[in-house]
Amino acid sequence: MNSDVAISVENISKCYKIYNKPQDRLKQGLFRGRKYYREFWALRNVSFEVKKGETIGIVGKNGSGKSTLLQIIAKTLAPTSGNIKVNGRVAALLELGSGFNPEFTGRDNIYLNGSILGFSQEEMDDLYNSIVSFADIGDFIDQPVKTYSSGMTVRLAFAVQVMVPKEILIVDEALAVGDELFQRKCYAKLEEFKQQGGTVLFVSHSGSTVVQLCDRAVFIDGGECLLVGLSKRVVNLYQKFIHAPIEKKQQLRDEIKSILSSTNLQSDSFEVEGNKISIIDQPSSMIELEAAYDPHFIFQGTIYESKGANIVSCEILDSSAKKVNLLVSRETYTWTYLVEFQKSFNDVQFGMLIKSESGLELGGAVSSWLGKGLLIKENTLVKVEFNFTANLLPGSYFLNCGVMDDSGTYITRAVDMYAFKVLHREGLLGTAIVDFHIENKITISDLENEINV
Questions:
Q1: CATH 2.70.50.60-classified regions of the chain
Q2: Cβ of 353: how many Cβ atoms within 10 Å?
Q3: Boundaries of each ABC transporter domain copy (predicted)?
């Protein structure tokens, strides 16, 4: 194992024996010549390396084998076959409050976890105040952990793992239960750990978090490692895969595996030789990213009390008039809704508004200014259409719609009525929320040469 490698995963496989009935387990022990179980392979021949000081994200849908892999790396679970080599002290946050005794207080569990990690009581005495300060759970530190909320439990668990001395930190989606401020605090601590040369192995379902935090990523599906490479590249293909139509999934899966077998995506993305800097281009997917509709991604919005009109339906349509809620950045779509009027109104305005997942109002429009609206008669059905370009970065968003009368009062309004996602687009390098179509040019100069990147 090279000295610059923190973790080496070599052909790791994990098989579980599944018994249909409890008595079958007893029969298996008594009659070893027969087979009373079926095999379930959680992992099959997974291999990759993590360099010291590198942050690696692991992506994959639920049940793909991510957590099993982390448990094997943390040595809380033994593989069926293969080898794991770890160079450095590991701190792992694998499950919510793992290693905590619910009957013990938070204070007691800090020392219990410390002893499990191999630290003496004197060493934990030195770390105690910083752990309590980071967890920030107040007087609950002296209460039994069984009285904690899930958020308080993960605060304390993360505080212990992030504050103890280590070279490698493993985090398995635990931050998802924390509030927004605590998540930011944790990510800042992870960044600080990275700057100090620490190695991080990070599992998350948030593609944008993996892209922002990780140098490289590993894509696992069905227990197989499909791809290892630059985080943005891997997340792009992962997003394409999970949102691809069922009939195209196997084709895309085979394509991704062929990329892994034919290209060394585990190498650095930059080669530097003297004054020459070149970017190693990665092969693009043959399947174009396209808008689609996910019937499982539905949010129940709030409709205001009607004052003479009702919003009866709404949807986003792509350029071919197909209903979608998975959008491609920079493509144009139509937000349309139907309104039934039970009364007549003067100077009617129709509106739309896009909001972020946190509720931030990103932008919208009205059909006209006050004083220039439409006269709508009773028993009328009105179809409203707003064309917009999805100049948004990958993430989840919500669409609102509303109808106002000549006084600016809502006749009817639907808040967060339609949820949609913006998918990762190949080559998109923007950050935050809005895509401003920013282009960049970086020039590196020395006394004799000028290099354009």
A1: 302-423
A2: 19
A3: 7-247
Where does the chain hold its CATH 3.40.50.300 domain(s)?
A: 5-228
Q: What is the second-level CATH architecture of the domain 302-423? A: Distorted Sandwich (2.70)
Contact 249, 274 (CB under 8 A): no
Rounded Cα gap, residues 307 and 410, in angstroms: 8
**Kindly report the CA angle at 265 between 259 and 270, in degrees rounded to 5?**
135
Query: Which position has the token pair 């808040």?
Result: 415
| pLDDT above 70: residue 391 | yes
CATH tag, 5-228: 3.40.50.300
| Burial category of 105 from C-beta neighbours within 10 Å (exposed 0-12, middle 13-18, buried 19 and up) | middle
pLDDT tens-place string over residues 431-447: 888 999 888 888 887 76
Specify the higher pLDDT residue, 256 or 310.
Answer: 310
| Residue whose entry in the numeric block shows the structure tokens 């005794």 | 101
User: Within 10 Å of residue 87's Cβ, how many Cβ atoms?
Assistant: 18
Asked if residue 418 lies in contact with residue 316, where contact means CB atoms within 8 angstroms, the answer is yes
Q: By the 8 A CB rule, do 150 and 177 touch? A: yes
Percent of the chain's residues with pLDDT above 70:
88
Cα angle for residues 39, 44, 48 (degrees, 5° grid): 160
pTM over 0.90: no
Tokens of 25: 């387990």
Q: Does pLDDT of 175 surpass 80?
A: no
Indicate the length of the chain as a whole number: 453
Residue bearing the bigger pLDDT, 262 or 382: 382
375-384 tens-digit pLDDT: 999 999 999 9
CB atoms < 10 A from the CB of 144, how many?
15
